[in-house]
Amino acid sequence: MAICESLLLALNDRNILPEKEIVGILKDAAAAHENAPSGDDDALNAAVAALINGILDGVTRCGGPDSRHGSDGQGD
């Protein structure tokens, strides 16, 4: 998950993928796990969906992927 998150952020930093698309990707990924058929992997799917939704909450609450550089967007 960390690698995927980093790749999405790098794509945004390089103006290859806009924030709107990143949010859409994260929402689609979370929904895929939330709506997965019931079975042996229920707990895993719930955990993955929660993790993705946590990333999504951080992206949308803080004003986008660039907010990871600090509250002013300038870095630390």
Q: What keyword list fits this structure?
A:
mainly alpha, disordered C terminus, 0% strand, 76 residues
Overview of the molecule:
With about 80 residues, this protein is an all-alpha fold. The chain has one domain (about 1-65). The chain is about 65% helix and about 0% strand. It is built from 3 helices and no strands. It has helices spanning about 1-15, 20-35, 40-60. Helix 2 (about 20-35) packs antiparallel against helix 3 (about 40-60). The protein starts with a helix and ends in a 15-residue tail after the last helix. The model is unreliable at about 65-75 (pLDDT under 50).
Structural class: mainly alpha
Q: Unreliable runs, pLDDT <50, ≥5 residues?
A: 67-76
The SSE string, one letter per element, is HHH
Q: Work out the helicity level.
A: 55-70%
Averaged pLDDT: 82
How big is the Rg? 14 Å
Strand content: under 5%
- Based on CA inertia axes, which overall geometry fits? elongated
Query: Strand tally, please?
Result: 0
Count of all domains: 1
Give the terminus-to-terminus CA distance.
24 Å
Largest sheet: none
Count of alpha/pi helices? 3
